[in-house]
Specification:
17% strand; 5 helices; two-stranded parallel sheet; 4-stranded antiparallel sheet; 25% helix; alpha+beta
């Protein structure tokens, strides 16, 4: 998308090492294969600029700004991963590997670890075992009246189509909460208004 929007260059940072081309010993079947992949976005960048945009083992240290307060660069450093005596992975910075990348836009894509805990704590929202906002099955109202949840903060990391669907259904519940009923689309399609509601509209129209 950035390429098609006219970006002059694209660089992506990944703090983890370059994935292998075949399964590693610590990634056996039936685990999801952690393999090096090239999708259409990487291919497009490679065709235009002659290289993969990804920089592995790279950690961002801080953002740099210009005299107008706009982002102007990112300071980075390489990292290496080793295992300790217990077999756990640990990360260490590589001395002398600092590098500054000039940029005009920084986009963060770091995955989803759950909703912001301080928001849930301040509102005293109930949480499910995974730390998401808890709601009744198939519903979007939280334990606090007037507070609704939908999408990733309710169901956990998922597809955007689920976010769209749940957002619409949550909007219907909010409408019902505020107005007593709702004519917004439901899970099975368009919900037709009740006859008395139609009568009221006709009367108002007259």
């Amino acid at each position: 998308t950035s390429l098609r929007q006219g970006a002059y260059s694209i660089t992506t940072f990944e703090i983890l090492p370059t994935p292998p081309n075949t399964r590693a010993k610590d990634n056996p079947w039936p685990q999801y294969p952690r393999l090096f992949k090239v999708d259409y976005g990487h291919e497009e960048v490679n065709v235009k600029w002659g290289g993969d945009p990804r920089r592995y083992n790279t950690m961002s240290k801080r953002f740099l700004g210009d005299d107008k307060g706009r982002v102007a660069g990112v300071e980075t450093i390489l990292v290496e991963w080793t295992k300790d005596e217990a077999g756990r992975w640990k990360m260490a910075e590589v001395p002398g590997s600092e590098k500054t990348y000039k940029c005009q836009i920084v986009m963060l894509a770091m995955g989803f670890l759950g909703p912001e805990k301080y928001v849930l704590d301040q509102l005293e929202l109930a949480k499910d075992p995974r730390g998401n906002i808890k709601t009744p099955s198939g519903q979007y109202a939280s334990n606090i009246p007037g507070v609704f949840a939908a999408g990733d903060c309710r169901r956990g990391q998922s597809l955007v189509v689920w976010g769209i669907t749940e957002g619409r259904q949550a909007a219907r519940e909010v409408d019902t909460f505020l107005m007593g009923s709702s004519a917004l689309p439901g899970p099975a399609g368009v919900i037709l208004p009740q006859e008395n509601l139609i009568d009221q509209i006709m009367i108002q129209g007259c």
